[in-house]
Specification:
Oligomer: single chain
Number of strands: 8
Largest sheet: 4 strands, parallel
Helix content: 40-55%
Strand order of the largest sheet: 6-3-7-8
Shape: globular
CATH superfamily: P-loop containing nucleotide triphosphate hydrolases
Bound molecules: 3'-phosphate-adenosine-5'-phosphate sulfate
Number of domains: 1
Order of helices and strands: EEHHEHHHEEHEHEHHHEHHHHH
Structural class: alpha/beta
CATH architecture: 3-Layer(aba) Sandwich
Distance between the termini: 47 Å
Length: 294
């Protein structure tokens, strides 16, 4: 296959959810993923704090040993399960090669999760972020990460986001689907905004969920190492080890702003009003509530 064909292609639908076309092509391989009982799944809608919580978890698993966590780039330490791009990456094969206990990243909506993760009753940490900040972060990510189709203008992208016509589908379905699932499964549901407000409180929740104790000084070390400014400088956490063909940080850095409420700098008043109306309809009847700034 000609490599240039991989990039900036239209998304393909899998059971109604738009995905990178290479994932859609390899779907049976994704469905066949073999989970292990001690896998920890990190599940998020894109741009919701995946890398942040992944770095935190790798540090927890390594008792705060910073050097050990510099052994490789975050996308190799915590493989992106469903990401299959011929000649570039295969999350399923990466995971097969990892020793237990594994950290597994996914952006799949709950209904598309490979069944072995449910059969093995794997623990899951889900991180959700408010829709408007996700939309903004996703727009800049579409611009810099060429596996996505061209984003078009912000106005056009926002329209597609609202209609679920972006990679991994509807934000609304994703956050609600996983919220419902937490009633029956071992899911710790976290919010990006809570992590911004009080990272220590949220890290302690993670430790409790993992039934793990760490001394206070290690907890503080992990918090320092996972602060936005430190992660932004860390080549093994900031995606600078990804090829420029795949991610061009000169267009927009992966570690962009790392704040809550940036949507205020992007939405026009008209866009805000339209979005709010649509949001109310989409989120009607759910107990799931978001904060939009800290
Ligand atoms: S991805 O590509 O979907 O896995 O991206 P993801 O890691 O989920 O989200 C990227 C956004 O998270 C911000 N980020 C952080 N914010 C605060 N603190 C820390 N440590 C941190 N690490 C990553 C990152 O900057 C992206 O958000 P924006 O708003 O674009 O800055």
């Amino acid at each position: 296959m000609d490599k240039k064909d991989l990039f900036r292609q239209e998304l393909e639908y899998v059971h109604g959810v738009p995905l990178f076309w290479t994932i859609a092509e390899a779907w049976s391989e994704v469905e066949g993923f073999e989970a292990r009982p001690d896998d920890l799944l990190i599940s998020t809608y894109p741009k919701s704090g995946t890398t942040w919580v992944s770095e935190m978890l790798d540090l927890i698993y390594n008792n705060g040993d910073i050097e050990k966590c510099r052994r490789d780039a975050i996308f190799n330490r915590v493989p992106f399960m469903e990401l299959i791009i011929p000649g570039l990456v295969n999350g399923i094969k990466q995971l097969e090669a990892l020793k237990s206990p594994r950290l597994v990243k996914t952006h799949l909506p709950v209904q598309l999760l490979p069944s072995s993760l449910w059969k093995n009753d794997c623990k899951i940490i889900y991180v959700a972020r408010n829709a408007k900040d996700v939309a903004v972060s996703y727009y800049y990510f579409y611009k810099m990460a060429t596996m996505h189709p061209e984003p078009g203008t912000w106005e056009e992208f926002l329209e597609n986001f609202m209609n679920g016509k972006v990679s991994f589908g509807s934000w609304y379905d994703h956050v609600k689907g996983w919220w419902e699932k937490k009633k029956d499964c071992r899911i710790l549901y976290l919010f990006y905004e809570d992590m911004k407000e009080d990272p220590k409180r949220e890290l302690l929740k993670v430790l409790k969920f993992l039934e793990k104790d760490l001394p206070e000084d290690i907890v503080n070390k992990i918090l320092h190492h996972t602060s936005f400014n430190i992660m932004k400088q860390n080549p093994t956490a900031n995606y600078s080890m990804m090829s420029k063909r795949e991610m061009d940080h000169s267009i927009s850095p992966f570690m962009r702003k790392g704040i809550s409420g940036d949507w205020k700098n992007q939405f026009t008043v008209a866009q805000y009003e339209r979005f709010e109306k649509h949001y109310k309809q989409q989120m009607e009847g759910t107990t799931l509530k978001f904060r939009e700034e800290i």
